[in-house]
## 1
Amino acid sequence: DMAPNRLQKAKFAIADLIDHLEGDRVGLVAFAGEAFVQSPLTLDYGAATLFLNAMDPDTMSVQGTNLGQAIEVALDAFAETDRRHRVLVVITDGEDHEGEVDDAVERAREAGVRIYTVGIGSAEGVPIPEFDATGRQGFTRDADGTVVTSQLDETTLQTIATRTGGVYYRASPAGTEMTLLAEELTAGEGEEFETE
């Protein structure tokens, strides 16, 4: 429901956001049914982009959506000494199959981490395609044989952003929301932590 697909659209959005940053450390957390640090916090935007480009569905060993764990892993990736000026950008359809979001968001709020959310996908819900080595094979089905759909959960994403002092944006084909998000992120006071 997003061209060329949700993952590629998210990767384009992240690359666009990185292009707008100046002197901010950036890290990447990939998630599906499990979450892991794809790139630790770094000032090396080239390295972060390299890790970003390496993301693909095959790197996700467990399918599903564990949004709560993604937030927890991202919070763990922040250095404990940096208590101020921490921001987490979550690009997702907002679905959560594990029910751990509330605790993770509360932890972020208590730690003073603002979460900005970017919703990607269709609110109406679309079938999840399956692919094999030769191309598209059909759609994902549950144990009963029913086609599984995935839909954008804007309510959850708006709640996450609001509870932590962030802002919710909906992904658009033009990607203008990433420019607005970059302006929002760079407008605040920064903290100098390294000089050359």
## 2
Amino acid sequence: MRTRYLLLPLLLLALTASAQDPQFSQWYAAAQYLNPALTGNTHQDRIALNYRLQWPGVQPGYETYMAAYDHRFSTAPVGMGAMVLRDKAGSSGLTSTTIGMSYSYEARINYKRAIRGGVRLGYTMRGVNPDGYLFADQIIRDNAPQTIEPNLVPRTNYLDLAGGLMYYSESFWAGVSVNHLNKPNMSLMVDGQAPLERRMSVHAGYRFPIDGQRTVAKSETRMTIATHYKMQGKWDQLDLGAYADHHQFTAGLWYRGLPIVKAYKPGYGNNEAVILMIGYQTENQLRFVYSYDITISKLTMRSAGAHEISLIYEWPKQVKKRKHKIVPCPKF
């Protein structure tokens, strides 16, 4: 059934309100989206595919797709990559597609520590399907099939800039990234103004062996504790959790929310989900990870939570005679 708004102002308010970017529960599996400084944090080449279906109980749900490729040069501390991100928001026909190119550079502090910086240039195409709405002029004209409202622009395009920094050692890493540095205008109205708020992300992690080995490099069973704080406009949220790697298997548990520090309205705590994650890596470096978000907000499980799948393939397994260490970040 179509979503219908009888009054144009309601639609225009929905299209010009401050938007929230799509998010991934497996945020490190979408490295370029998380932080352009992570571009090329692999032995040499990597392909990543991500899919998220959020709230399928609220048909048709919210879908996000992402495909990315990045390359790390063996002769220089440089990484380059490209990504395509598509997001579809519910039944309203509102979609956005972003194509981005990323570049990163690594500066060595010493043989155990380094800093990476990265930038991303993106181009976004955002649009809405007017067929999903019923305008007042259509009712006046005996339920005409199309609106003649002149203020609505079905599609808009804009450039989008992002940047980030990353510090790392063998066991610890911390990074920050800022998206929409240029605050592009995403309005779907003629002469409308709807600047896209900057999204800031702060992420950190610590990894340690739990099988008695002294170093992570020699360990076959290790634990990773990681956190991810993100803020955009008046909205903010925290992901906190841990996962364990044992040989080729991965399992983790996460919490998403920020209940103590901030609540948007009295009686509405900022609790969203508990996330379960499992994964497996084949002998030829192909990783598969599945996660499920258990909704704990007032939407309850009637939303049916969220399903997320990541497929990542890296090659080769190891590059000989490399002068620069790779970023030791989680690789879901």
## 3
Amino acid sequence: MSKISSAAFADTKPHYDILDGLRGVAAIMVVWFHLFEAYATSHLDQRINHGYLAVDFFFILSGFVIGYAYDDRWKKKMSVKDFLKRRLIRLHPMVVMGAVIGAVMFYFQGCSVWDVSAVSLSMLLTATLLNALLIPATPGSEIRGLGEMYPLNGPSWSLFFEYIGNVLYALFIRKLPTRALSVLVLLAGCGLAAFAVWGPLGDICVGFAMDGDNMLGGSLRLLFAFSAGLLLSRVFKPVRIRGAFWICALAIVTLLSVPRIEHLWMNGLYDTLCAVVLFPLLVCLGASGKTTDRVTTRVCKFLGDISYPLYMVHYPFIYLYYAWVKNENLTFTESLPGALALVAGSVILAYLCLKLYDEPVRRFLTDRFLRREK
């Protein structure tokens, strides 16, 4: 997942406030998508059923904003090392925080699905270190037993692919002329469509585990969406649109909430339509719009500020909520107060992490490793 605030490095360029806000809307939808995992037998019957597509939206935003913020800097002799340091400073403090919160919460998450009492403290500390360093666990070797790359904080998997996208951009993709980049986007889009429509799953809800389908599908999701966002940053021409934030926000909520489509190929076609056609269109519309009133401006800023921290800190509490629901055999109605508290508490925690940890750490690291070199 990438963060629009990276554009802050391009000091002379206008900021896309609406894209910030849309990223926050998608992040909140991810929280609700994960909440309903407690009542699903799989993502096939999960409510907010296509919430997993938010990651594809994030990857497109990532490519768009990185291209917008950094493409011109290579002409000014920015080095690969400097670019990667900037991205690490921007992204990694919250990776560490998510791992730490996941570790602190781990022994409170016991239920019939995973036995936390069987995990020793040394195993937990090892898993915490691996998660903090973004080193993925392989199926059968991780402490929760679900096959996740990052058993303490599941959403870290998308940061694993985000880092791959950043490295590919720095070493290869940024050097492609626009025509060659268009060919890459077309080929990756065809590959993603083939995986979604004719693949074994009928969807692109993949990338979170180190097995064949997840690694193939996750790589296709990243390669298409990141490259498509980069291409959009090069060819984008704004159009006139009023109320862009509210129109696009409603579209995101609607697209991510659509129920599972019964036939595999039809659901895969829907995923392809969203990831390959509609999300790039929404990015273009969001980048075209302007916030013209105080309320929309403040909403977009707040949502943009908390979006990445929210994505990175909410999931340990989803594990806790899941265990509570299973242990108490609760219906959704019975657990609704807890669900609302989880969403509100995650937003508050995200804001506190941003102000008390993420921003100060990034300022320190920027002063220490970037500004002194100028």
## 4
Amino acid sequence: MKFLKGLALAILSFLLFLSLSVFGLVLTLNQTILNPDFVVSQVDRLDIPSLAGEMISQQMPQEQEFIAGVASDTIADLEPWIKEQVTTGIYSFYDYLEGRSENLSLIISLEPAKEKFKDNLWQAASQSPPPELAGLPPAEIERELNEFYSEFSEQIPSTFELDEASLDPQVMAQLEQAKQIVGYLHLAYNALIGLILLLILGIVLINRQVKGTTRQLGSAFLSAGAASYIGVFVAKQFAGTQLTQLDMPVYLQMLAPQFVTDTLAPLEMYGIGLLVAGVALLVVSFVHKQHQPSL
């Protein structure tokens, strides 16, 4: 009987350790990647003009430096508007991904961006016209600018629309798969909470003594907390090595380590919490007097 009791406690303690460890990962996903508020907070930290300026300078030829400057100024002027539209898109996408909305539909008017570009184009040309327009009469400069803007405006649609019809069927299939995975993760989150409580209850009922119960629970909590905390440390080291090998703008490379830190922060705090709880339970198990009443 004593052997069976010890075996049952060992199995329950191991399952509790596994459940606590897996729950930390699911908790981290729920609070970061699967949380639109977290994603929006990361977007808000972006210096969009700096990022856009770096990308424009890399992609546009030197002879179009004037247009590149106008585009950069326009993006800087529209930064609050851009972040507002991105935020709307993020929440709309997560509503679809998590099943709160049956259809994926996002419509953004690009007219404000086109108008701001037009205003900046005229202002830049009046202050410092490009070499090809320098020396021309004002009427001729205006005609050239009108012609350029007409061509530019025709290439940019009035609205940006994102829905099921505009996406490739393969992309939609991947999104549907992602919706299922998100659903499973939310289910796992709730199921793990219930399983952890049942395992704790099982250990309490089998032990029926404060000393034994707190020692079993303390060991499981301490082990899971150590595993989570060490996992965060290893992940940060691995991510730091891999990020240096990725081909991305310099500005994003500078922000990437902080993004990794923010993403792993919930798991790190979770690990610390388990460590503290585990140590506290073990201390209770050692200082508790054997003759005190059973649970």
